[in-house]
Amino acid sequence: MKNAVHAINRLWWVILPLLGSCLGLSCGEEESPTETAQTQCESLYQAYCERSQTCELIHDADGCFMLTQEETPCAGEENPDDDANACLEALAEFSCERLPTEIPSICNKTVLGADNPVESAVEECRVLVETYCEMLSFCGIYLTEEKCRDEAYEKLPCDDAASVSTGYETCLSDLDALTCENVEPMPASCSGVIVFTDEDLL
């Protein structure tokens, strides 16, 4: 009798893990390619933002991730990346000195390569400068937008932009709302919205 009980107990410990994995309705189901692609996309952007924070390029990895999802939602991804896992491993050890201007080469084939956050930051910095200079020129502070941009880029090297903060859109909205009576100084909401390689210049 004792042998039978022991045998049943041993069998139960074999079956229990299997039961535990099948208690949910999704037992035996695998992620669809679209679900896999979206999960990979979120993991890649999160890893990029966390590495950027570790390298002290940004102050808020979660805010960085939220911004990427506003601009390039992972919900739009449909095809899994074969290089996603290799990219995640490379990001974890990627040089902080190189991160502001590039990503690991293996990541170029992933969503990060298709929409590099660094490239986006450079472009967004330029949009901010051009928007403000357009208003300054219109109000007669500068004779031409070109002269304004030339001086702005000397103080604000957009090519070194690493990321933008979550206040970027508020800054742009406040710039659009400026009049010639309050065009200077730049709105307080624009302070710190562009994060550069070494420090916040704006």
**Cα-atom radius of gyration:** 25 Å
Shape: elongated
- How many strands, which pairing sense, and closed or not: the largest β-sheet? 2 strands, antiparallel
- Category from helices, strands and their pairing: mainly alpha
Strand content: under 5%
Helix content: 40-55%
Number of helical segments with 4 or more residues: 8
Protein described:
This protein is mainly α and 202 residues long. Helix content is 53%, strand content 3%. It has helices at 2-21, 33-54, 61-71, 84-92, 111-114, 117-138, 145-155, 168-176; strands spanning 161-164, 194-196. The protein has a two-stranded antiparallel sheet. The protein is elongated, with a radius of gyration of 25 Å. The chain starts with a helix and ends in a 6-residue tail after the last strand. 28% of the residues are buried.
What's the gist of this structure?
This protein is mainly alpha-helical and 202 residues long.
Main attributes of the structure:
mainly alpha, 202 residues, disordered N terminus, elongated, two-stranded antiparallel ribbon
Architecture blueprint of SSEs:
Elements: H1 2-21, H2 33-54, H3 61-71, H4 84-92, H5 111-114, H6 117-138, H7 145-155, E1 161-164, H8 168-176, E2 194-196
Antiparallel strand pairs: 1-2
Helix pairs in contact: 2-3, 2-4, 6-7, 6-8
